[in-house]
Records
---
Amino acid sequence: MTYPMLPNGQMVTLRNRFITGHDEYGNDKYGYTESVVGPCAVQQTTSRETITATDQVSTGMIVFMPFGTEVSYLDSVILDGQEYEVTGTPDTWTSPFSGHTAPIRVHCTLVKGASV
């Protein structure tokens, strides 16, 4: 699907997670489906390093996906070979005046490193 609002955007892989059952302790077990979504606008937001009792870097991204994309807080986005977890509920917006829609704003986080 081509979304004219972002003609020079980037294609990303959306990994939708869903519950497939439960383990012997009652914990959810998950399965995944993947789809290519776009074009999307991708914007790095933050990068922080934690060095107290650990050596860890977390990087935030905002991905603007085409309106109507099915994405939730359970999902992840693969950008340039790195898997970013969706953080919070994606934002959608429809103009109350014209009915025009905006891309879905998805906040994502990648955490790398060790923890103690």
---
Amino acid sequence: MGEKIQELSTSTIMSTSTIEEPKRGTRKTRTGQVISSGMSKTIVVQSVTRVPHAKFGKIVKQKKKFYAHDEENKAKTGDTVRIMETRPLSKLKRWRLVDVVAK
């Protein structure tokens, strides 16, 4: 009889430990060129997006600068890098370096 109680309590512990945690949403990623790496642990990445003009339809380039966190100062000016969206790290930094695509 003592064994049955022990088995029962073990199974209830197992079932309560398999609570599913909420899944994190997918984060945006961008690929761009490093235009500045003079700051400590921060790089400035310029991303170029090609979109059609609203009125005329011609393909135009839109440039946007992103401040990204580079923990090991791996990226240098001119490198092509991949960055990922993250929580706010400072006034301007909302992105972090994933990897250096090309030197």
